[in-house]
Amino acid sequence: MEPAVLPNQVDADSALARQAAAGDETAFEGLVGKYSRPILDYCRRLVGDATAAEDLAQETFVKFYLGLSTFDPSRPVPPYLYRIAHNHCLDWLRKKRLPTVSLTWEDEEAGTVREAEAPDATLAPDELVERAEVQQAVDDALASLPPTYRGALIMRHREGMSYEEIAEALDMPLGTVKARIHRGRERLQQKLAKYV
After folding, report:
1. Is 188 in contact with 142 (CB distance < 8 Å)?
2. Number of neighbouring beta carbons within 10 Å of residue 46
3. How confident is the model at residue 119 (pLDDT cuts 50, 70, 90)?
4. d(CA 127, CA 66)
5. Confidence of residue 101 (pLDDT cuts 50, 70, 90)
6. Which of 13, 3, 11, 64 is nearest to 34 (CA)?
7. Segment (H or E) for 166
8. CATH node for 7-100+115-195
């Protein structure tokens, strides 16, 4: 989970955004370098297709670049990027009409197709199996939620964004964001009742 954006990060990102809007390619590359991994991870989690997520993340930065002239540099960059990525992924999902999304991804270096977490060496093998089953159940339950709930929950719990950042990223009132996260949690709780 990444920490919330600090004020000095906002200033540095805003300076890079202003420079990029003025045509400084190095400044834009700095923003891409800083946010490409989190945006790619978010796209992967939201659409569940690693190949499509790479394209969607790249297209997010193209849209960001094309919109730099209208970007308000007094506002933080991450929520703006997440809004672009979220809307672009939702458009892709609507076109593909995918019923579910997995929170796993392909780790090409390790050759795995699972979110990497180190197992607790103090747990017995049967406890490890049970923990893996619960994690799979959580992933499946999250994947079965509508994208409106899933996106907000991923931003809050996997990306570590504040409610305010999510509201800005999704371009909706703070109360709506809180309601979606609350309802999404309730739905997850219902789906996971046998594990609680």
Report:
1. yes
2. 24
3. very low
4. 50
5. very low
6. 13
7. helix 163-170
8. 1.10.10.10
pLDDT at residue 127 in the model: 64
Query: Domain residues of the chain, as ranges?
Result: 7-100+115-195
Candidates 87, 49, 53; CA nearest to 67 is: 87
What's the CA gap between 97 and 94, in Å, rounded? 5
The amino acid at 98: L
Task: Name the one residue in this structure whose structure tokens are 């209208």.
Answer: 70
**To 10 degrees, what angle do helices 50-66 and 77-96 make?**
130
Helix (H, G, I), strand (E, B) or coil at 135: helix
pLDDT given at position 144? 84
Nearest residue to 7 (alpha-carbon basis) of 76, 73, 82, 79: 76
- Considering the chain, what is the average pLDDT of its residues? 79
Which H or E run includes 19? helix 7-21
Q: How far apart are CA 10 and CA 28, in angstroms?
A: 15
Q: Indicate the length of the chain as a whole number.
A: 196
